[in-house]
Design brief:
Elements lengths: L4 H49 L10 H7 L3 E6 L6 E5 L22 E3 L13 E5 L20 H6 L2 E6 L5 E11 L12 H14 L14 E8 L5 E9 L2
Parallel strand pairs: 2-3, 4-7
Antiparallel strand pairs: 1-2, 1-5, 3-4, 5-6, 6-8, 7-8
Length: about 250
């Protein structure tokens, strides 16, 4: 008995629809994989660098000798519990190189975490403000400082106020006391101050800008750490997280 033409046409239509669906699914998966590859590569590169920095059995700090063997520009390591921020810090004679160059020296949109070139480790007395920069790329977790945007939530801020920022020969813990958004040209990047009054006046200004209140009181000889990344709800905006050294 011959097939009903309508039945045959329906089967043909179903096969075509199924084939189109399969093609769409395959194309979507291929697109997802293609889009995800940079993030996957970034993750494994980060893990590889972290393994280099692991201390030896007789040492409990970051292995800066091993890191400097990979990149002589290494000056520190920053880690914040509860975030993906766990990176080496580099410094060179400008603030452009590491915007789009990784710690390993590869060209990349991720760049590296870098210390402002104006900070002078040899300055006496020591410079009081270390400014670190990192990308956030629309708050992607693969970005070096993407997780700083978590600090826009007060409950997260209250639960994660400690930063580990170790410099070569100078391990340290830092307490966050200010989180605010500002324009890129705001004066938050200065490493040095004219004197005690200038330093404490600066502290008061950033305290006034902060989204949250704390009981931190800065002393004239305190050191501060400033973390800077982009925000995307204002033109050329920055999210700034500031901490003081507590140990």
């Amino acid at each position: 008995m011959s097939q009903n033409p309508k039945t045959e046409n329906k089967k043909t239509s179903n096969r075509i629809i199924n084939s189109i669906c399969i093609i769409v699914i395959i194309a979507s998966l291929a697109g997802l994989i293609y889009y995800s590859l940079p993030y996957i590569r970034q993750y494994f590169k980060k893990e590889a660098v972290a393994s280099i920095a692991q201390p030896t059995a007789e040492d409990t700090g970051v292995d800066f000798d091993a890191l400097k063997a990979v990149n002589p520009d290494t000056v520190g390591w920053i880690k914040i519990e509860g975030t993906s921020i766990d990176y080496p810090v580099v410094q060179t004679d400008n603030n452009e190189k590491y915007l789009y160059t990784t710690f390993e020296g590869e060209e990349s949109q991720w760049g590296a975490v870098f210390l402002d070139y104006t900070y002078n480790f040899n300055r006496v007395p020591k410079a009081q403000n270390s400014v670190l920069y990192g990308h956030s790329h629309n708050i992607q977790k693969s970005s070096t400082f993407g997780d700083l945007h978590n600090y826009l939530d007060e409950s997260f801020f209250r639960a994660h106020q400690t930063i580990e920022y170790d410099r070569v020969g100078d391990p340290g813990k830092w307490e966050i006391f200010s989180v605010y958004k500002t324009e890129a040209d705001y004066d938050y990047r200065r490493p040095d101050f004219a004197g005690d009054e200038d330093f404490l006046s600066y502290f008061q200004r950033i305290q006034n800008r902060s989204l949250y209140k704390t009981d931190v009181v800065l002393e004239p000889d305190d050191e501060i750490l400033t973390l800077s990344t982009c925000v995307f709800d204002m033109d050329d905006g920055r999210l700034v997280v500031t901490a003081r050294k507590i140990s």
